[in-house]
Amino acid sequence: xxxxxxxxxxxxxxxxGCMDSTAGPGxxxxxxxxxxxxxxxxxxxxxxxxxxxxxxxxxxxxxxxELAFRFAEYLWRNPEDARGRRVxxxxxxxxxxxxxxxxxxxNGVDINRNVAVSNWMPRGRKTRxxxxxxxxxxxxxxxxxxxxxxxxxxxxxxxHSIRSGRQCVNYDGxxxxxxxxxxxxxxxxxxxxxxxxxxxxxxxxxxxxxxxPTITLELPRGAAVGDIWEKCRLALxxxxxxxxxxxxxxxxxxxPGRDRLGR
Length: 263
Hints:
Aminopeptidase, 7 helices, 17% strand, disordered N terminus
């Protein structure tokens, strides 16, 4: 049922002309999954300063993709709300996992444990958190890394979901202030730790290794997308508008420059 809701959101985008995959602005393929499904991104704005929002690293967390799609639709219609920041939104990092309703990708790899950081480890293949035979071995992981290098974001939000009651605004790197601001808006507590080890995680890579303020927004699993949207819309807007008090390191790369994907 939830996957059908996600498809319905995509269909609404098509009807509105926002998911045109040929000419003009809208959604563009930025890579493909193991099973050759397109991984799409929407870019709003052309500012030098960028924010990236990722959804559905885990295929059994469809709430994350639904919220990212809804926020993308909102921001496409209201680009002025980004207040001078380029926003890149990738609702489905793991489309194969979403299609099969599994946490991992089609190779059985947890995309959120497959990043080349110092604490990466090849956990057992049969576990839900298998980090792959090598770091960044999966095409989905490489798409994420390419986008980080392409846009060199100054803030990153990775949307996930967790058992209801444990929802939170988790932060990595210099993002405590942002997490606290988002917490006040959505009502989820700001936390510097999710409460268990996450070796090879994207948050560790972006926030701790690169030094980019990084938020992992953990939604309550199973909650209605309408309720999540009402709680989290302003928090996501805060993330894309937020400017740190002091300059922060940006992801390595050549910088955004001209981008024909932007609106």
